[in-house]
Amino acid sequence: MTETTADTPAPPRKGWRRPRLGTAGLVLPPTLWLVVFFLVPVGISAAYSVGALSFFPGEAALSLDGWRDFLDGSAYLSLFWKSVKIALIVSVASILLAYPVAYYIALCAPKRKYVLLLLIIAPYFVSYFLRILAMKVILGDQGVINSFAYWTGLRPQDDPIPELLYSQTTVVITLVFVFVPLVALPIFVSLENLDRRLLEAATDLGASRFTAFRRITLPLSLPGVLAAFVFVFVPTLGEYFTPLLVGGTDGFLFGNSIADLYGASQDWQTGSVLSLFLLFMIAVLMAAFARFISLRSVAAN
Amino acid sequence: MSELDRLFNRRLSRGQFVKLGAVAAGTSFLAACGGSESSGSAAGSIEDEPGNLSVLEWAGYEYPAYGKVEGAPGVLDQYVEAYSKPTYTFLTSDDQALGKARAGSKFDLVHPCVSYVQDWVDLGYVQPFDTSLLTNFDKLNPSLVANSQIDGKQYFIPVDWGFSSVMYRADKVEPDGEVSWNLFYDDRYKGKISWWDSPIENFLIWGYTIGQFDAYDWDNWTDPVLEDAKKFLIEKKKLVRNMWSSQTDFDTDVANGNVWIGYAWGGSFKAAKDAKLDVVYADPKEGRLSWNCGFVLGQDTANYHHAHAYVDQWISAESAGWIIPNYYYGHTNTEVDTSGVDPELVKVFKLDDPTALDEPKAHIERYVPERRKFAKAWDEVKAA
Amino acid sequence: MDIAVSPRGKWALRVMLALFVGFLYAPLLLLVVFSFNDNNLPVFPLEGFTTRAYEQFLDNPELRNSVLTSSKVALVASVISIVLGLLAAIALVRKRFAGKGVVSALLLSPLVIPYIVFAIALLILFVQIDKLPGIALPQSMWTLVIGHVVILLPYVILVLIPRLERIDVRLEEAAYDLGTSAFRTFRSITLPLIWPAMLSAFLVSFVFSFDEIILASFVAGNATTFPLYLFSQLRFPVLLPQVIAVAVIVFTVSMLVILATEVGRRFLERKLDIELAAAPPEALAE
Fold it and tell me: Do B187 and B236 fall into the same domain?
C-alpha cells in the first residue's frame, strides 16, 4: 500500500471510471424489490378492477362496469369526498398546530433545538396503534374525559359528551393526534434553512417583525408546509385503522370501504376500483404539488 | 442542490403511470394462469400428524376462554393436554370468514353457521367428516344433523344453536307498544343503537318489520324492494352509534354505556347481566332470528385426526353443559341435563322448548342464493 | 433584538409549545397512570395503586410469542431494508444513470401510499402467486417481512442520503486512485463514517416495524405480531388494564430507543467528522 504524498486530495472529477456493472448492482436490488412487491401488486389490482382477473373462478370478463358504476354518482364516490373533507380538516388543523411549534424550535431555541425536535417527532415513529388505543380509552362515554367530567361535576352523571367517541369528530381528533408530530418535521426543516440575513435586511429597511414574517418567512417556508400537507393528507385519505377503532358509523371512511369490499363482501372488483381511484387521485395531487413546489422554490430564489 | 432536494422536486407521477400501465398489462397475462389445489387425505394415524391445529373461530370460543371452569379442568383441557393448544384466528361474520378463505388463508377447522355450508362446499374448501371418529356423534339432535348434510355427506357438524334478537336496557329504553325489531329504527334513541355488521340479517330485519313480508322468501326481494330497504337503512344509519363486528366489542360498548339497544346473541345477554345491567332479551312480535353453527373440516388439512378429536370435545355433553349457562345458547348434544339451569334462563331462551326454533316464533337461518346481491347493497349502506 | 419574534411573541410560542407537548404526551401519560390503577375500566376517580396488570401480562405465553414474532419480523425486515437502502443511497448520491428520477420516485413512493391500499394489493399478489400451479405461498411472517421492507426503504434512504452527501467524495476518489477496490473503499472509508446513520436507520426501522399493524392484519396470515395480539385482547374488557400496561412498556422502551439513537448518532457523527477533519492523510493511508 503506497502512502499518499499530497496533503490535499486530488480535485474532484466529473464522471467516474466505475464499470457499468457496479451501478446496476447498486440500483437493481432495491428497484427490483419495489417493482415486484409494490408495482406488480398495484398492477394486479388494476387487472381486478377491469375484470381481467376475478375473485370467483371462471368469472373473469373484461369490462369497465366496475368503473362506470363507481364514477356514476355511487355511494362510494360521495364517501371519497367525505374522506377528502376529513383529510383536509386534519391536515389544516395539524399544520396550524405544528407551525408555531416548529417556528419556535427552528428560530428561537438554538441550544436545545434538536432535543426539542426529537421530543416532538419521536411519538410518530414509536406507536401508531397504541396512540389510537390511547384515544379510544380516553374518549369513550365512560372513558377518561367523560368520567373526569362527572367526577368534577362539569357534566351530570349519565350525560356523556356523545361526539367524543364513534364520530367524525373522534376521527379528526385522533388523526391530528397521530400525525401532528410528523407534520412538524418538514416545516422545521424549511424554517431552519431560512437565511436569517434576509430577515435582518428586511428589518434594517424598516419592516416590522410581522411584515418580515408575512413577506419573507412564510413564503420561504411554504415548500415545507406543502410537504407537511402531503405527508398528512395522503395517508389520512386512505385511513382505515383509526376510523375502524374510533369512528363508528359516522366516521366510516373510504379506506374502511375498501377493506370491507376485499373482506366480508368478497367484491374484489369494486374494491380494486376504489383502491386504484385513490391511488390515481393521490398521483394527480402529487403531480400538482411537485410542479407547485419547484416553481415556488425557483420564484423564491 | 442536494440530492434530497432533487428527489423532492421531481414530478412523481409520469414515470409511475407508464410503469404502472406496462406492469398491469404484463401481469394480467401472467397471473391469469390459474392453478388447482391439492387435496388432503384421511389415511394415517394421529401420531403422524403435525398437530398444529389451526381454527377459524368466533371470538370467545377459543381455548382457554371456551369451556373455562374456575378451579377445575375446562371442557377443552383434555384435548389440549393430550395434544397441543390450537392456534386461533378470529372471524367476525360468516361472510368475512369466506372472504378470508377465498383470499388464501388455510385452516384445519372453521366454525361457520349452517346456512353457509353450501358456500363452503361450493368453494371446494371443505371435506366431509368421518363420523365414525366422533364418539359423541350419535348423541346429537338428529334433525339438526340431517339439516347439515349436503348430498348425503356430513360436511357440517352442528354444535351450538341460539337466537338473535333485540337486546335493550330496561332502565333506559321504553319500547313503543309491543316489543319489535323496530327499536333498531327508533329515533328517540339516536346514538345509542348498535347493529351487527352483516348484510343478510340487517335486510331480514327490515323485511320483517317495514317490509311486512316473510324475509326468507327470496322471491320477495325484487330489485325495487332491495332498493327501498337500502334507502331506509341509509336513513336510519344515523341513529347507529357503532356497527359491531365482534360480539365482545358489542359487550364492551354495552358495559360502558355507549349503547342501549343492539342486535344480540345470548352471549351478550350473559355479558350484560355479568356487568350488572338491567337488560331485556326481547321476544319481538315479528319473531326472533335463530341460527345453528358448527364445524367444517378443511380440505387440505394435515391434522385430520386432531381435527376430529377437537370437534369431538366440542360436541360432548360436558361442552353442552358448559355453553348453556355461560352463553345462554343451546347445544346439539341431546344428553345434556338442563335441570340445573336457572329457570329464568330456560324461559328466556326457551331451552326446554324443542319447537322454539320453528316458524313463526323464530326464523332459522337458511342458505342465501343471492348472497352477493345483499352484500353489495350492504356495502353501499355503509358507505353512504 | 430578535428579528424572528418579539419577547411577548416568544412567551406565547413557549406556551404553545408546552400545550403541544402536553397534547402529544398527555394521553400516553394517562395510560401510564391507569396501568397502575386498581380498576378494570380506565375511569376517574382513581382507585388504589397496583402493579397487578404488569404481573399478569408478564406471565402470558401468548404475549411472549407475539413479542418474539414481532421481533423476528422487525429484525429481518430492518436488516434487508438497511442493505437495500444503502445500495440505493449510494447509487443515488454517487452515481449518474439514466432514469434516476424515475427510480428515486419509485423508491420513495411508499411514503405516500395509504397503507391499506398497499396491504391489500400485496395480499392480492400473494394470493395470485399462491394460485399458480406448483407454487405455494401461504401468508406468514415472511410475507409480512416483504411488505415491511417496502415501507421501511424510503425512511432508510432518507436517513442515509444526507449523511452520504456530507462524506467528502474526494476521500473515496482518492482511495480509488490508489487502486483500492470499490468494496474495500466502502469498508475502510465510507462505512466508518456512515455506520452511526446506518445504526440509527436500523433502530428506527425496527421500532416502526415492531409496532406496525395495518400490513400485519392483512398479510401476516396466522402469524400474530405484538400489535395484533394487543388488538385481539381489546375484546376482553377485563384484560384492558393488562393491554394498557403493555402498551405503556412498549411505548416507553421505543421512545428511549429512538431518543438514545438520535442523540448518540449526532454525537458520534460529530466526533467522526472532527477526527476526519483533523487528520485526513492518516484516514486515507490504510
Answer: yes
Q: In whole angstroms, what is the distance from residue B203 CA to residue B197 CA?
A: 11
**Residue A123 with chain C: CB contacts under 8 Å:** 24-25, 28, 255
**Closest CA of chain A from B327, distance in Å:** 25
One domain, residues B285 and B295: no
B115 and B167 together in one domain:
no
Query: Residue A251 is placed in which grid cell?
Result: 366516521
Region C67-284: CATH code: 1.10.3720.10
Chain A residues near residue B24 by CB distance under 8 angstroms:
42-44, 46-47
Report in angstroms the alpha-carbon separations of A298 from A289, A301, C19, C124.
14, 5, 36, 42
- Going by their DSSP bridges, the two strands B288-298 and B126-127 should be labelled as antiparallel
pLDDT in tens, C23-72: 888 887 877 777 787 766 666 667 778 777 777 777 777 778 888 999 99
Give a yes or no: residue B10 inside a domain: no
Joined together, the cell numbers standing for residue B308 give: 376430529
Q: What is B179-225 written as a DSSP string? A: --GGGGG-GGGTT-EE-BS-HHHHHHHHHHHTS-S-TT-GGG--HHH
* Residue A265 Cα, gap to closest chain B Cα (Å): 6
- CA distances in angstroms from A221 to A189, A218, A226, B261, C11, listed in the order given: 9, 5, 9, 52, 22
Q: What CATH number does the domain containing B57 carry?
A: 3.40.190.10
Distance separating alpha carbons of residues A39 and C171, to the nearest angstrom: 37
Q: Is A112 exposed, middle or buried (0-12, 13-18, 19+ CB in 10 A)?
A: exposed
The answer to whether residue C113 neighbours chain B at the CB level (below 8 Å) is no
Q: How many whole angstroms separate alpha carbon A257 and alpha carbon B257?
A: 27
Query: Alpha helices of B64-131 — where are they, by DSSP H?
Result: 77-82, 94-102, 117-123
In a domain? residue B145 = yes
Q: Is the pLDDT of residue B37 over 50?
A: no
- Closest by CA position to A82, among listed A196, A296, A247: A247
> CATH says A75-300 is which class?
mainly alpha
Residue at B19 is within a domain:
no
The C residues from 26 to 45 touching B (CB cutoff 8 Å) are 41
The H-or-E segment that residue B89 falls in is strand B87-91
Same domain, yes or no, for B198 and B123? Answer: no
Domains: count for chain B:
2
Is the residue at B24 inside a domain?
A: no
Of B34, B59, B105, the CB nearest to C131: B34
Q: Among B241, B243, B253, B260, which would you mutate to test the A interface (most chain A Cβ atoms within 10 Å of its Cβ)? A: B241
Q: Nearest-CA residue of chain A relative to B258? A: A141
B185 is in which domain, residue-wise? Answer: 162-290+368-383
- Shortest alpha-carbon distance between residue A246 and chain C (Å): 13
Tell me whether A149 touches chain B (CB under 8 Å).
Answer: no
Share of chain C above pLDDT 90, in %: 14
Helices and strands, counts by H and E, chain B? 14, 11
CA distances, C66 to each of A178, C139, C140 (Å): 24, 16, 13
B276, B311: one domain? no
- Residue-wise pLDDT for C258-269, tens only, equals 788 778 888 887
Give the pLDDT confidence score for residue B212 in this predicted structure: 87
Cα angle at A64 between A60 and A66, to 5 degrees? 80
Scan residues 63-82 of C and list those with Cβ closer than 8 Å to A: none
- Can you state the angle between helices A128-139 and A168-192, rounded to 10 degrees? 130
Amino acid at B194: S
Write the pLDDT tens digit of every residue in C136-185. Answer: 777 788 999 999 999 999 989 988 888 888 877 777 777 777 777 777 77
Q: What is the pTM of this model?
A: 0.82
Gap from B311 CA to chain C (nearest CA, Å): 20
Residues whose CB falls within 8 Å of the CB of residue A76, separated by 6 or more in sequence, listed in order: A70, A254, A257, A270, A274, B380, B383
